[in-house]
Design brief:
single chain, alpha+beta, seven-stranded antiparallel β-sheet, 7 strands, about 35% helix, elongated
């Protein structure tokens, strides 16, 4: 997905806090303080962080600065390493059979639950180093005039990770721009009592 593609699904947020004026010149440094860290050579399952809007491998913003007129544009990169279930099942079965053979030689009758759990973790850790993580990027467009942030994703789990990382980076909190808050923005706070009293209509 991408904002510069033919189409995109995105989630809109409003910034709850009023950004201090001192924040704007700090934006590039704050993005560099919480960048994406590559895990190709690490046995980690997942990694995320900020990258350049124009180049997913650029964490120094050498390709282009994040400032785009009155927008701040950058991307949230999420790399996920997955071991195919069939591959894991095969290697776990092999490890379990080897453990059972050792148990018989030592006079033990079965493999306990704790040992099975340990074997699962060992097999998973070993296999993780043999699969490259799958990269994904989600664009972020921050309208600094309206304090609206557009995030190029609608998946709840990814959105939650983005929200947490955004707050950690900028010390600002985001709130989904739901129809309720859109109505407040259009009609004004004086209409809040009417909006709160509105009842849903069934069209069935």
């Amino acid at each position: 997905m991408s904002f510069i593609g033919g189409s995109a699904s995105f989630t809109r947020y409003r910034i709850i806090d009023e950004p201090p004026k001192s924040l704007w010149p700090e934006i590039p440094d704050r993005l560099k303080k919480f960048p994406f860290t590559d895990i190709d050579n690490l046995p980690e399952e997942r990694a995320w962080g900020w990258v350049c809007f124009d180049n997913m491998i650029d964490t120094e913003w050498r390709t282009a600065p994040p400032e785009k007129a009155h927008y701040i544009a950058f991307s949230f990169r999420l790399d996920t390493r997955r071991v195919p279930p069939a591959v894991f099942k095969k290697h776990f079965t092999i490890a379990l059979e080897e453990e059972e053979r050792r148990n018989k030689q030592e006079g033990r009758k079965f493999v306990g639950k704790d040992r099975k759990r340990e074997l699962r973790d060992l097999v998973k850790s070993k296999l993780m180093t043999r699969f490259l993580p799958i990269p994904a990027t989600f664009d972020v467009a921050w309208n600094t005039e309206k304090n609206i942030v557009y995030f190029d994703c609608t998946r709840q789990k990814v959105c939650d990770m983005f929200l947490e990382h955004f707050t950690q980076t900028f010390d600002l909190h985001l709130e989904p721009l739901t129809p309720y808050f859109l109505a407040l923005n259009i009609l004004g706070t004086e209409a809040q009592h009417r909006i709160d009293a509105a009842e849903p209509t069934s069209f069935v």
